[in-house]
Design brief:
It comes from Trichoderma lentiforme. This is Protein arginine N-methyltransferase 2. Keywords: Methyltransferase, S-adenosyl-L-methionine, Transferase. GO terms for molecular function: protein arginine N5-methyltransferase activity. By secondary structure, this protein is α/β, with parallel strands linked by helices. The chain has three domains: 131 residues, Ankyrin repeat-containing domain (Serine Threonine Protein Phosphatase 5, Tetratricopeptide repeat), CATH 1.25.40.20; 234 residues, Vaccinia Virus protein VP39 (Rossmann fold); 179 residues, no CATH class. Helix content is 38%, strand content 14%. It contains 24 helices and 16 strands. The strands form four sheets. The chain has a seven-stranded mixed beta sheet with strand order 6-5-4-7-8-10-9, sandwiched between helices. It has a three-stranded antiparallel beta sheet with strand order 1-2-3, with no helix packed on it. Helix 5 packs parallel to helix 7. Bound molecules: S-adenosylmethionine (SAM). The site of S-adenosylmethionine has 25 residues, from strand 3, helix 13, strand 5 and helix 16. S-adenosylmethionine (SAM) binds next to strand 3, helix 13, strand 5 and helix 16.
Length: 620
């Protein structure tokens, strides 16, 4: 049994804690909002950490509330007045840039502390902050930092010109003595030496199969038999009533558990993608059920097939072949969320037939409840953007043999990748409402590999581009904040379409994506002129149903006009050189103030990110 955690202030702020950090921690602990505001005037201060205990101001503000009373049945179950004060402090800290998932010496994030103490309101604040941070990170994928204007040489000079830090240092420096600045004590998180699994290393590692598990050479559990029930439920969600004759794609063979279940349903097509050479060898061994004789047993040639290689390459081949599936399952290993997101945003809409279903093993952050809760929301938002209708199905996970490191099911396994109790195992099931009218630029790229390097001028100028889809993107702050950020620099900005608030601190801004006249599944054009865009509004409404958003037709037409202008520019060989336009931010900027927007200095990181992604701002 781990020792109980001492949540007292004395235990959390160590004697080694520097005065600056100590001040911030005390103000956070005391919920002194006005005092704290003065101290956390830049983002590094909001995340200062005690060098020994790892306490951050967020931990302190939450921990100071102590454990909640027994639930009273009231709305704010078991919460007291202290939480209200803490909430303001926590909000202020997030506003000042506090990091939502720093761990302390007990390996607890602020949310873990809130959860353990039964402080649901504070826990939820941390989840919301996590969602905002992860959505922004996803938006910034591919973000290139803008140069500060100086080159490296200048930077070196600046370093050399720096003043010695203290008077003693200065004296020593004058004496020619080498000054070695004492390194300030820095907190080292408990899992700092944990080796992260990377896809590249995993795919080169040796694997060991036994009856109950598949391990890599670092003894990480790649697949384990205890997941069998999750696989069974996923199959039931993907193929209701166990209907035979379905077209199935499974990505990641592992122990072949889910493929065994799919095979029992006598599909009309069963494709498997697997990248690891050792797994492929296992599949082709004489005792495997999925070897050459299985491939031959399909209703027609190629109907039952194992594709050897990374899915990132194989799906392009499947798209070229025009494959369509009724059910797609995704469960790989050693890949981060960006890969899963890329798969369901860029490829699922093109590979899945109408009314088809997609599911994946939802192990995202499953070793820490708050990460699991954050990612569940993030995935849901990204899925909505990809035109997927999301349904969650809770699965009970029997934790009897999963509760102790190295014991029960985990015997011989390096670390537990699942620690959530029986109620939190979620199984994801998505249904696409109607992919026939929806495409994102990413999908278009996926359909035709050579487009991914083409610039937007080419895409805008393409002959078969005849309609435009407006999609929403989650913004970190209300759109007004974005506008204010620019206004502060003397520019008048209006976002043309703002289509509603998702939550108090998140809004959706309409952005443009382009679709060509062919739909995602490669079927024939459904419309041939942009007038039909108006008729598409119904579908747009459909897509936004989950957020109760209605797009205003006049806004669509207005945006269309702006875009038409851009197309003309492109044809004249003008300056429209958007490299990666899956996000185009349209703003109104007064002409006499429209100096190069790249020069804008702003602390609004979101704006920087949007500008970097948009490449250029179209001026109306
Ligand atoms: C967790 S296991 C899948 C388990 C499977 N659902 C089952 O029921 O047994 C993950 C599998 O994905 C494979 N994999 C990992 N990265 C891949 C990639 N990029 N492309 C294809 N397969 C991959 C791994 O080699 C491994 O066999």
């Amino acid at each position: 049994m781990p020792a109980p955690i001492d949540d007292s202030l004395e235990a959390r702020v160590s004697p080694e804690c520097p005065q600056e950090t100590r001040d911030v921690l005390y103000h956070a602990w005391g919920h002194d909002l006005s005092g704290l505001k003065k101290l956390v005037n830049d983002r590094s201060k909001a995340s200062l950490q005690d060098p020994k205990t790892g306490e951050t101001p967020l931990h302190a503000a939450i921990r100071a509330c102590g454990p909640a009373d027994e639930p009273s049945g009231e709305e704010d179950e078991g919460e007291d007045g202290c939480v209200e004060e803490a909430r303001e402090v926590v909000n202020q800290l997030f506003f000042s840039g506090a990091i939502w998932n720093d761990v302390d010496a007990n390996n607890e994030t602020p949310a873990c502390v809130a959860y353990r103490l039964g402080r649901k309101t504070l826990y939820n604040l941390c989840v919301d902050a996590g969602v905002r941070a992860e959505i922004l990170l996803a938006l910034m994928d591919g973000y290139e930092e803008l140069s500060s204007g100086g080159d490296d040489e200048d930077d070196d000079e600046t370093m050399q010109d720096q003043e010695p830090e203290t008077a003693t240092d200065e004296a020593k420096a004058q004496d020619g003595e080498v000054v070695e600045a004492a390194e300030p004590l820095k907190f080292v998180p408990p899992d700092a030496n944990e080796k992260p699994v990377t896809s590249e290393e995993y795919l080169q590692s040796d694997l060991t199969y036994d009856d109950n598990k598949l391990l890599d050479s670092d003894l990480n559990g790649v697949m384990m038999a205890w997941e069998t029930d999750i696989m069974r439920r996923s199959v039931a969600a993907l193929i209701p009533d166990a209907q035979p004759g379905k077209r199935i794609l499974n990505i990641g063979f592992g122990m072949g558990i889910i493929d065994g279940m799919f095979a029992e349903l006598k599909p009309s097509k069963h494709h498997i993608i697997e990248a690891h050479p050792a797994v492929l060898k296992h599949i082709s061994s004489p005792e495997s059920k999925f070897g050459a004789s299985w491939e031959k047993s399909g209703p027609e040639e190629g109907a039952y097939k194992v594709f050897g290689g990374k899915w990132q390459e194989i799906v392009l081949q499947l798209l070229e072949q025009g494959e369509l599936y009724d059910a797609i399952y995704f469960d790989t290993f050693g890949e981060d969320y960006s890969q899963l997101r890329m798969f369901f945003m860029e490829y699922v809409p093109a590979l899945l037939d109408q009314e088809g279903r997609f599911s994946f093993f939802n192990g995202l952050g499953a070793d820490r409840r708050v990460c699991y809760d954050v990612y569940t929301k993030v995935v849901e938002m990204h899925c909505a953007d990809a035109g997927l209708d999301v349904e969650w199905e809770e699965s009970d996970v029997d934790m009897a043999k999963l509760n102790q490191d190295g014991e029960g099911e985990w015997e011989g396994v390096r670390r537990r990748y699942w620690t959530l109790d029986s109620t939190s195992g979620s199984n994801k099931m998505l249904r696409v409402q109607d992919t026939s009218q929806v495409a994102s630029l990413g999908t278009l790229k996926g359909q035709s590999g050579n487009q991914s390097s083409s610039n937007t001028a080419t895409i805008l100028g393409r002959q078969n581009l005849d309609w435009i889809i407006l999609l929403g993107v989650g913004l970190l702050r209300p759109v007004e904040n974005l506008a204010q950020g620019l206004c502060a620099t003397g520019l008048e900005v209006r976002v043309l379409v703002e289509d509603g608030t998702v939550s108090t601190d998140m809004a959706r801004l309409v952005v443009l994506l382009l679709a060509n006249s062919r739909n995602t599944a490669g079927r024939e054009p459904s419309s041939s002129c942009s007038d039909e865009l108006c008729q598409s509004a119904d579908q747009l409404k459909l897509r936004y149903r989950r957020f109760d958003v209605e797009l205003r037709l006049e806004s669509i037409i207005r945006l269309l006009k702006v875009l038409e202008g851009s197309v003309r520019s492109a044809e004249q060989g003008d300056v429209l050189v958007l490299k990666d336009m899956d996000l185009l931010v349209i703003m109104q900027v007064y002409q006499d103030q429209s100096e190069d927007l790249a020069q804008i200095e702003t602390s609004n990181h979101l704006l920087e990110c949007l500008l970097a992604r948009a490449g250029r701002v179209v001026v109306d």
